[in-house]
Amino acid sequence: MADDEMWDVTDIQGTPTGALHRRGDGPVAAGSFHIVASVCLVSTTGRVLVSLRAEGKDYPLAWEFPAGSALRGESSRTGAVRELAEETDLRVAPDDLVLVGRVIEERALFDLWVAPIEGEPAPTPDPEEVQDAEWVTLDEVQRRWRTDAFATPWNARFEQLWEVLVERVADVAPRRV
Asked: What b/e sequence results for 57-93 when a residue is b if at least 16 CB atoms lie within 10 Å of its CB, and e otherwise?
């Protein structure tokens, strides 16, 4: 999360405009956006990985799915994979990601992805980004969201994407007979 990381500035469709924005220089200009991508990692047990934001971050000690801004030249998909690896040391292939949807925020285009993973591998949180991470059910995610334990931006994201998220998690989770 270095203040010198560079983002592509996009239009509302997510098409890069050719302009760049340096993190730490405040928000992108009004009417412009940058891509923020998140991964809901789905275990073969059907549970999902949530992470607890580090104390020094915005929305400290609030839950979320691993997420962050796509860097210059990255797609949403590759940014999501990189952020997952940086924050938890867990890796998935970009082609394993399935898009849940996009939320248009004030200055960001937020993409939520799901990806399957074998078992429930132990994450290794980056202490500057993540204080803790754990595997939980979607019911537990919803309970934490409804009790304001998730970072505030997730309220609008879940309001718009929850039903599709539940469907996509079921799509990538193993079929139980």
From this structure: beeeebbbbbbbbbbeebebbebbbbbbeebbebebe
> Three-state SS for 76?
helix
| Rounded Cα distance, 136 and 17, in Å | 39
CB–CB of 8/83 below 8 Å?
no
Which residue ranges in the chain fall short of pLDDT 70?
1-3, 174-177
Beta bridge partners of 150: 63
| Cβ–Cβ < 8 Å for 156, 103 | yes
pTM beyond 0.85, yes or no: yes
What is the rounded distance in angstroms from the CA atom of residue 134 to the CA atom of residue 47?
10
